[in-house]
């Protein structure tokens, strides 16, 4: 029956045969053709949208592409594209139906988060952090009922946290920090039973922390800092006793710290500063055996500092600054041997610094400033050998500064101002070789002379001894303080001349006022029989002018001029002697110990004796920088040289003479159109002189800030742009050789006959490279107004630091303003003044030099583009500044357009 029936069928209906053939063909082609993998077209589509460079599209099997993991049936389960700098449309990913793990973090994706991601029903892990996703969080994500980890941090998300996310019932890890989210923290978050991590800091979240948070979940990490949260800290967050990290800093929280905090033995970090919390610290903190970090500064907490903290033997940091605490420091704190920072400033604590504290061997910061401590400073204070910050200012401390202070060899900052300290400044302060940030003993009752040993503090930036009864002269030895930027000697009993030392002469007059008998610059009172050096040449030329105009008085005036010139010469020679430079005396010739001229056809024309003599004459002085003074030297042959005399700040330089000479010879061969390399050098005594070709157009500073002397066209915009570009090229080249410049300023940019800029003082960077340990100079280098803000903290000269200083020069070029000028008022310097322009409601025209920006539309456009670059360069965050090479590129583009 069967065969016959079939036969009949096939015989009778021929088309059935063809059907079979077609069916057979389909079956076979399925095997012959490379078989299409399930997610293949989707994966190739994704690659077309976002172009992943590592994906090898010649390999059709996407399961082998980097960042991909497939299941056995070759569906994509895991897609990791983090940190690839990718952008483009990611919606297609939502079609990878089997996806469990999706990581797109740290890319450049922008626009809305695709709502279609809500269709990835298998998804357990979703990380979209550190992109530029904007708009609100799509409600559809609430459908991801298998999701355990959701990270949307560091995007530009706005709006509220949608209630639809309530569907994420298995969520353990919920991170949405660093967005612009507002509204409340929804109550459903508290109902997520598996929640371990809630991180929503740096948003605009308001309202109260839900009081169910922590009651069902086993929350371990709660970080909500920098929002606008109100109400009190709910006790529920401690209820499950699982909390390890609590960060609520910078909100508007009020009320008291719940007693139940003591239930959480595993709590290691409590940071609740900058809120409006009140009441006492509960004694139960003593039960938190894991506590390492307790920070509650800037609240309205009160009562005594509970001794129970002493039971937290792991405590590393305790910061209770700026509250209303009173009483004394419990002596039990001496048992906290792990303590590194103890910060109690800005309370009303009194009594002694307990002797027991000296047992805290790991303490590196003791900040008790602005309290009412009225004891003495313990002689053994430096038993805490790791101390870097000893801040005791603004108290009522009595007694003397202990001699033992010299043993705190790691100290970076010593603040003792506004106390009732008596006696002298002990010479042992000179042992504090690492002191960098400040030495402040102002507003005390100290007397006696300044110890010469202060001169050994060659890293110190700020010295304030004002408002005491200190007497005697300001010692010459203080010239050893090579890093000094800020000094204050005012309101003491000092007498005699102010030493000639750049940081002194550059200080405001107020730093020296109110003394018994100080004289000399910067004060206007000249020292006995002396005349102010800077003013003289000007007075002379004024008199010469008078002489020419007033014909009748000619003879009298010429006599005056002769007398004055004679007096001036005498004074200069005295100055030279004071400064340790040997006298220009023909029968006492300087002893040149080494010297060379690298360029053959200059060798005949350069006379070393004439070079040395030129540097002794003040009238030859052209400019003075942080590290060197530049003189003009005319050779007997008629050749004019620039001679850069290194300030004899670094004696070690001399001890490495042969190394230095090698370095100089190498430098002379380092040729770049925009770098000024030496043509020779010579060394006598401990003075190093570097010889350079003459630069007839002076410095960029002179071009910009002595405008009236120049014809207008000399500083027009195209010339300025070309100078800005040249300086950038020079610095970029320097950075490409891993050389960091130590003192970038417009005074260190020289202009040749064609106004080509040459960056000078590169040899200083090479010779005094602090990172190589060849020099003892401070890392805090540079000229006032050009020093990047971070140097004060990092003490490290860096390439981004150079970019900042360059940015200041670019701003000078654009605005024709000085980097530091009283005209900036509150802004204090050019950078802050420019950055604050838009906040002040000012237009670019009020910033740019209008003499140039209003000349033509094209000039204005170019200046605006350059202003943008200058703003980037002077960003406070070093990491955000462009590289020098990039800066040069951007300027080149402006120039070419
Ligand atoms: C030195 O300390 C006093 C008291 O704290 C303070 O007023 C003064 O400004 C400080 N000096 C400097 C230079 O910071």
From TrEMBL:
PROSITE patterns: LRR, PROTEIN_KINASE_DOM, PROTEIN_KINASE_TYR. The chain crosses the membrane at residues 9-32, 544-567. It comes from the Eukaryota. Its main location: membrane. One of its GO terms (molecular function) is protein kinase activity. The keyword Transmembrane helix applies. It is a single-pass type I membrane protein. One of its GO terms (biological process) is anatomical structure morphogenesis. GO terms for cellular component: membrane. Residues 616-897 form the Protein kinase domain. Keywords: ATP-binding, Glycoprotein, Leucine-rich repeat, Membrane, Nucleotide-binding, Receptor, Repeat, Signal, Transferase, Transmembrane, Transmembrane helix. It is found in: Membrane. This is Protein kinase domain-containing protein. It comes from Nepenthes gracilis (Slender pitcher plant).
